[in-house]
C-alpha cells in the first residue's frame, strides 16, 4: 500500500467512507478551477464536518507525507484551490463547516465557519439590522474561508476595506494539525505578532482557516446610485477627489468603466440600456450609503453632480430614481466580465497601482499595447476608489482569439506587469496569486521580500504540505540541504 492509499484509508476511518471521495465522477467538480484553466488530480477529496476533523486530517497528512489543498466555494480566479496533476495531493473541501456560530450585536461581530457562503452572512447581518459589506460577483457561491484566504476585495473596499479589514479573529488549523483559537472579537490587541494577518491572503499555504470573527456595520437607511460620463480617467480621478471631499464616508462605491466595456455589454446584453444618448470615454458608477435618509443622500448626490457638471469634470450624469434603476446601473458594471466571455477569449489582469497613477498608467500602457498588438481592444474597468483595475485585452475585431492569445498573451503580460512595477503597483489586487501568478510574483518582488516570504513558509510549514506551489516558490528539501 502506498503512502497516499494508506492516508486515504485512514481518512475513511476518520470521516466515514461517504465523506472521502475517490470516484472520478464525484471528484471532478473539485479538480478544475472556475475558469476551467487548471485541471488537477487528487488521491481523494475530503469533506470534514468540523475543525477537529480538519486538524485530524492534517495530522494524518503529516504522518503519511501527503500534501493538502484547501478549497472553499472553488470560485477563485488564480488556480489557488486546484491540486496539481500528480494525483498525490488531497483536496480538503470546507463546505460542511457551514455554521454561523453567533452574532454579537453590541460588538458588531458575527462568528462564522469557513464554509459559510458569503450571501448567507450578508442575509444574517441584514436580519440583525446590520451590514456585512463584502460584496462581489460570486457572493452566492463563494465562502468566507476562501474570501479570507485570498483577501478578497469587491465593490465596498473604498469605504470598508478588503476582507482583511473586516476580520477581527481567526480559528486556524496549523500545518502540524494543531488548532489555534484566535476567535477574539477585539479591535485592540497589542500582544505581539499579528498571527491573524499571516493567514489572511496566504491561500492556505500556511494553515487552514476554519472559522472567523467578522465585523458588522450599522445598516444604512438609504443607498443611492448614479452614473456619470467623463472624458478621461484623469477626469474620473478629479471627480473621485470631489466626491470624497463632499460625501466623505458616505461614498461607498466608485467604479470606473471604459467606453469599450460599455459597448461590449450593449452588444451582448442589449436589454441592459446605457442611460446616456452619446458614448463617453469613461463612465463612473457611484454609490452613497446614508444613515440619515434617502432624501438626504439624493440631495447630496444631485448637488455633487451639479458642481461636477459646472466645473466641466463630468460630461453627463443621472441619479437612479428607484431601486430597479439602481440595480440596472450595477448590472451594467457586473455584466462586463460576462460580455467579455461572450466576445471571446481575452487576456486578463487584476492589478493595482496608486490611485494618483491610474490615469498615467492607462494612457501609457494603452499606447504600449497598441504598438505591440495593433487593433487590440482594451476592456478597462474596476474599483477606481482603491486603485484596483481589471485591465483586460480583447483580440482585434475579426482576429481569431485563440491565435491572438497564443501569440500575444505572454508578451502583453510582461508589458503590463512591467508597467505596474514601474508605477509601484501590484500584479494581483484582489484575486490572489494561486498558481497563476506565483512565478511573476517571485520575479517582481525584491529578493529581500521573497526571502522573508520563504522564511515564513519554512517556519510554519517546514514539510511544504500546505497547498504547495501556490503563492511562494519554496523547496523544503533544498532548504534543508542549505541549512545543513
UniProtKB/TrEMBL annotation:
* Single GO term (MF): catalytic activity
**GO BP field:** respiratory electron transport chain
Q: Does the keyword Flavoprotein apply?
A: yes
A Pfam family:
FAD-oxidase_C
Keyword Nuclease attached: no
The residues covered by the FAD-binding PCMH-type domain are: 38-219
In terms of InterPro entries, this protein maps to: FAD-bd_oxidored_4_C, FAD-bd_PCMH, FAD-bd_PCMH-like_sf, FAD-bd_PCMH_sub1, FAD-bd_PCMH_sub2, FAD-linked_Oxase-like_C, FAD-oxidored/transferase_4, Oxid_FAD_bind_N
Identify the keywords attached in UniProt to this record, alphabetized: FAD, Flavoprotein
- Kindly list the cofactors needed: FAD
Q: Which PROSITE patterns match?
A: FAD_PCMH
Q: Which family does it belong to?
A: Belongs to the FAD-binding oxidoreductase/transferase type 4 family.
What is this protein identified as?
FAD linked oxidase domain protein
Annotated organism of origin: Caballeronia insecticola
What taxonomic lineage is listed for the species of origin?
Bacteria, Pseudomonadati, Pseudomonadota, Betaproteobacteria, Burkholderiales
Amino acid at each position: 500500500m502506498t503512502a497516499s492509499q494508506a492516508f486515504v484509508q485512514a481518512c475513511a476511518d476518520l470521516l466515514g467512507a461517504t465523506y472521502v471521495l475517490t470516484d472520478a465522477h464525484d471528484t471532478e467538480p473539485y479538480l478544475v478551477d472556475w475558469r476551467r484553466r487548471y485541471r488537477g488530480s487528487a488521491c481523494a477529496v475530503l469533506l470534514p464536518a468540523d475543525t477537529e476533523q480538519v486538524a485530524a486530517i492534517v495530522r494524518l497528512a503529516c504522518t503519511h507525507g501527503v500534501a493538502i489543498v484547501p478549497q472553499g466555494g472553488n470560485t477563485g480566479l488564480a488556480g489557488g484551490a486546484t491540486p496539481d496533476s500528480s494525483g498525490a495531493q488531497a483536496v480538503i473541501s470546507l463546505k460542511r463547516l457551514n455554521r454561523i456560530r453567533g452574532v454579537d450585536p453590541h460588538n458588531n461581530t458575527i462568528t462564522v465557519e469557513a464554509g459559510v457562503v458569503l450571501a448567507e452572512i450578508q442575509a444574517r447581518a441584514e436580519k440583525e439590522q446590520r451590514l456585512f459589506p463584502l460584496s462581489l460577483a460570486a457572493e452566492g457561491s463563494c465562502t468566507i474561508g476562501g474570501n479570507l484566504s485570498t483577501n478578497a476585495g469587491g465593490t465596498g473596499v473604498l469605504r470598508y476595506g478588503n476582507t482583511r479589514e473586516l476580520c477581527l479573529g481567526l480559528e486556524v488549523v496549523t500545518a502540524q494539525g494543531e488548532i489555534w483559537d484566535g476567535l477574539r472579537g477585539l479591535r485592540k490587541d497589542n500582544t505581539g505578532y499579528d498571527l491573524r494577518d499571516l493567514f489572511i491572503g496566504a491561500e492556505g499555504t500556511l494553515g487552514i482557516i476554519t472559522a472567523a470573527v467578522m465585523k458588522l456595520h450599522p445598516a444604512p437607511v438609504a443607498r443611492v446610485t448614479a452614473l456619470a460620463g467623463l472624458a478621461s480617467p484623469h477626469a474620473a480621478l478629479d471627480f473621485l477627489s470631489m466626491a470624497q471631499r463632499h460625501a466623505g464616508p458616505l461614498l461607498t462605491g466608485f467604479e470606473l468603466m471604459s467606453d469599450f466595456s460599455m459597448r461590449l455589454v450593449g452588444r451582448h446584453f442589449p436589454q441592459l440600456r446605457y442611460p446616456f444618448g452619446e458614448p463617453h470615454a469613461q463612465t463612473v458608477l457611484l454609490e452613497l450609503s446614508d444613515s440619515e435618509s434617502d432624501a438626504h443622500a439624493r440631495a447630496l448626490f444631485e448637488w455633487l453632480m451639479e458642481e461636477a457638471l459646472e466645473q466641466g469634470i463630468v460630461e453627463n450624469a443621472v441619479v437612479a430614481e428607484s431601486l430597479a434603476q439602481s440595480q440596472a446601473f450595477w448590472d451594467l458594471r457586473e455584466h462586463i466580465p460576462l460580455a467579455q466571455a461572450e466576445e471571446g477569449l481575452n487576456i486578463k489582469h487584476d492589478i493595482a497601482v496608486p490611485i494618483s497613477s491610474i490615469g498615467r498608467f492607462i494612457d501609457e500602457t494603452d499606447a504600449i499595447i497598441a504598438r505591440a498588438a495593433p487593433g487590440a481592444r482594451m476592456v478597462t474597468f474596476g474599483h477606481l476608489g482603491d486603485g484596483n483595475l481589471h485591465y483586460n485585452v480583447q483580440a482585434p475585431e475579426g482576429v481569431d482569439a485563440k491565435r491572438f492569445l497564443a501569440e500575444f498573451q505572454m508578451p502583453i503580460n510582461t508589458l503590463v506587469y512591467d508597467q505596474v512595477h514601474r508605477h509601484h503597483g501590484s500584479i494581483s489586487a484582489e484575486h490572489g496569486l494561486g498558481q497563476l501568478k506565483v512565478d511573476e510574483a517571485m520575479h517582481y518582488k525584491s529578493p529581500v521580500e521573497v526571502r522573508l516570504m520563504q522564511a515564513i513558509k519554512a517556519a510554519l510549514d517546514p514539510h511544504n504540505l500546505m497547498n504547495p506551489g501556490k503563492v511562494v516558490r519554496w523547496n523544503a528539501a533544498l532548504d534543508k540541504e542549505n541549512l545543513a
